[in-house]
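Quick review question:
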């Protein structure tokens, strides 16, 4: 297959994955709707349903409702598996479309597609272990919306890696960072749901009754964060500085992305430390986890749009920008600051 063929396959696969993610979301929403308590019918003296005017109120048996809910749940999971598989094909095609072949992490579009893939995959991996089936509508909404943003606003044509990215450290650093990002996102969603449920109170019926208790939400969020933190530490404090030294001859450059990655590390370190030593649980821990999630995603996307000095600007475009503070301004004719493209 030609490079153009691989790129076409990648674009078609990501479109198909988006559609299937959306179908899975609709199925899970239907599953949640089927959990609503049916309206009880009034009964007459003989125990038969009593008509309300000209309309007879039907009584749905619990067995039929349970079977339909179970079927919709299994179908939603199956569609999610198919969508994640298509998502993987899109990433594979993206890497095979480049000449030479490379990992699909050359620009912001590819990072975003990879990040959402890990979120979807991690949900499927953790779903049975932590009984996270109830999270499906939230996770699928996040993945579908983020993919739409990537395809509509972030899409770039396939191109070779820039010189700074052309290193085996790209695989080590980005794999660990993306895995941690996916886990932190799942843990952050759990913390957000915890705060919502804390405000609304425990539900005893309907879809909200499916959400685990506050204690279970808090404990599961902590376990997932505890898994993600050492992976993020490896990405930010070990492989990142080593790669920076190889690319720029310095372990630390006070680059905006480096600074925000470290801020994220500090927030999550505070979250885990507070839980382990000060006994922080519940509301305070959930708020701190949400702050960490906000810093994580701002670093992932926001820096590329709000920073003009980041040496990581290649994460938002195919071409790297390298600042040259000693360049002669007279060589610039377009009014921009000295740089190389």
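Suggested answer, residue by residue:
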């Amino acid at each position: 297959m030609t490079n153009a063929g691989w790129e076409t396959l990648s674009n078609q696969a990501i479109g198909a994955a988006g559609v299937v993610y959306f179908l899975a979301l609709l199925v899970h929403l239907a599953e949640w709707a089927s959990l609503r308590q049916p309206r009880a019918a009034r009964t007459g003296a003989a125990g038969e349903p009593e008509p309300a005017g000209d309309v007879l109120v039907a009584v749905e048996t619990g067995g039929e409702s349970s079977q339909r809910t179970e079927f919709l749940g299994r179908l939603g999971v199956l569609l999610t598996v198919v969508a994640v598989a298509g998502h993987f094909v899109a990433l594979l095609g993206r890497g095979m479309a480049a000449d030479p072949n490379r990992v699909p992490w050359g620009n912001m579009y590819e990072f975003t597609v990879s990040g959402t893939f890990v979120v979807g995959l991690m949900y499927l991996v953790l779903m049975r272990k932590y009984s996270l089936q109830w999270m499906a509508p939230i996770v699928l909404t996040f993945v579908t919306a983020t993919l739409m943003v990537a395809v509509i606003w972030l899409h770039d044509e396939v191109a070779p890696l820039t010189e700074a990215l052309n290193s085996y450290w790209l695989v080590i650093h980005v794999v660990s960072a993306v895995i941690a990002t996916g886990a932190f996102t799942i843990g952050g969603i759990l913390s957000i749901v915890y705060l919502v449920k804390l405000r609304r109170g425990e539900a005893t019926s309907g879809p909200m009754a499916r959400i685990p208790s506050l204690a279970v939400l808090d404990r599961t969020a902590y376990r997932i964060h505890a898994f993600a933190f050492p992976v993020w530490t490896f990405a930010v404090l070990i492989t990142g500085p080593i790669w920076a030294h190889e690319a720029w001859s310095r372990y630390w450059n006070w680059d905006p992305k480096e600074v925000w990655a470290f801020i994220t590390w500090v927030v999550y370190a505070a979250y885990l430390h507070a839980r382990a030593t000060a006994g922080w649980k519940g509301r305070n821990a959930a708020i701190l986890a949400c702050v960490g999630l906000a810093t994580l995603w701002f670093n992932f996307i926001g820096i590329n749009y709000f920073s003009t000095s980041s040496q990581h600007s290649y994460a938002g475009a195919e071409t790297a920008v390298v600042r040259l503070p000693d360049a002669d301004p007279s060589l610039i004719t377009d009014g921009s600051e000295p740089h190389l493209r």
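Why it works: The chain has two domains: 1-36+61-163, 167-306. The first strand starts at residue 322 and ends at 323.
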